[in-house]
Specification:
The protein is α/β, with parallel strands linked by helices. It has two domains: about 5-35 and about 180-255, Response regulator (Rossmann fold); about 40-165, Response regulator (Rossmann fold), CATH 3.40.50.2300. The protein is built from nine helices and twelve strands. It has a seven-stranded mixed sheet, with helices on both faces. Helix 2 packs across helix 3, helix 5 (about 120-135) packs parallel to helix 6 (about 150-155) and helix 8 (about 200-220) packs across helix 9 (about 225-230).
Amino acid sequence: MAAAPVFDEAGVLHLGPTASHPDFVSMGEKSFTIAMPMKFEGAADADYAYQKTGGKDIALIYLNSDYGVSHSSVFKESYEALGGKVVAFEEFIPGQTKDFTPVITKIKQANPGALFVIADYSDGANIFKQAKNLELDCDLIGPGMLIKDEFIDVAGDAVDGLLMLSTLPIYSEDDRENESPAKAAFVSEYQDLYGVIPDGFPANAYDCITLISGMIDKVGYDADALAQEFRQVGRYEGVSGNITIDPETKEVKRDLMVYTIADGKYAVEEIVPAT
């Protein structure tokens, strides 16, 4: 976001593969992303959580960052608009807070039916482990940024049954036969190059490069022409999922991919098409 005005003034196409802040695409005529803005993702998370839990009272713990503040704020507003109640709304400083027991104790006193933790995988693992130690008994929910094998390694059985609400995919050896040829080829080539199965973030970057290279083949390197092409993408089936770009606002809609954790592995719960 800090770079957007600089690129705009220079007349350079500015592409952020995972830029989900609601203001990003409005910061320059040539600023684009294939990430769903938080005003849509947070609302989709709230709608799914409300329907899945039956509208239980929910507590939120979120990291104090642009991502955490925007995600939690949109989620809270949307959940309450549906008729749900947010009984706790607690922030923390990412990478610095280690002892979450005071916050979890406070949340436990509010007696929530569900806990939504917006954090990266290391902080999230600590929160869920400490919640289990304090015997916080409720439904557990997390965002896509928790999707890392290291998250399960650290959190262990404290996250059994946890629901992950993501707009990015999870790839695994177990589900390879269910992937499209394009996805299977991407995962296989990535493994050959780096020796690991990719997560959704390199998939997003791959889709960005695939899109822009195809546009360059069509219209060359003129930034105005490329920006116009981006506006006309419409619906695109990438290796990171289905992407729809609004030609007027440049905002992106994506399917909500819901995963759960069972026996130390991620498993697909369902895919909710974008609306």
